[in-house]
Amino acid sequence: MSDLHHSQLFEYCKMVSPYLAGETAQSVSYSIQFDSDCSGAIYQLYQEIASHSPEAGGAYWMTRTWDSLIWQPVSIAFVAIYQLGALPDLRQVAQNLQTNFIAGFQLPPKPFVEGDHECLIQEAGAQLNALFASYLKHMNVNIRIRPGYANHLLADLILNCIVKLQHLTPHIGHDELLAQAHLWFEALALPKKPIEGLTINDQSQNLVLVRTSCCLVYRCEGGKICSDCPRR
Length: 232
Fold this sequence. Notes:
By secondary structure, this protein is mostly helical. The chain has 6 helices and 7 strands; from the N terminus they run αβααββββαααββ.
């Protein structure tokens, strides 16, 4: 069952994004790993982002670095729980540092935990909190990011995944999606105020999100304010 879970997870992840490309752990070791000293790799990513968008400034470079670190583990958790009803050990996710971004991941060939959504979300929250605490510690060696700001970005990422979930699982209604958002925030020990940014669009009748944080991409040359940005 472990091999089947891995192959199904990797297939579903590629449907979400071609950059979310998974494989079982091979001899090549990815540089972003739990509880290993990845401070140098994180700083390398930060410097590459700064070199690519020097006009955007330090706040953007920091924000983009943290967003890059957390997007894959959160995406993997959502795909695993809602498509497979099973969860890998997210602390064992090794991420691939590429030029200017992070894409691609490895998982060890270990069994997934199965269960209902509520139980799996609680487990995912505990694992992600441990993983991101490790990332935060290593990032702060060279780049100062406040835990509160990091949690704002994480909260908006979770809510964005909830918005996308309504298209992947159309059988789940708005009330249930909001309930799922509360479960995720409880599991991750996040303040629930950002959930108020989820509303129903009068025309489309779909959930839409107004973020509580700004990714600052508008500071990049040619960049614009995002449609879900609070600056709008």
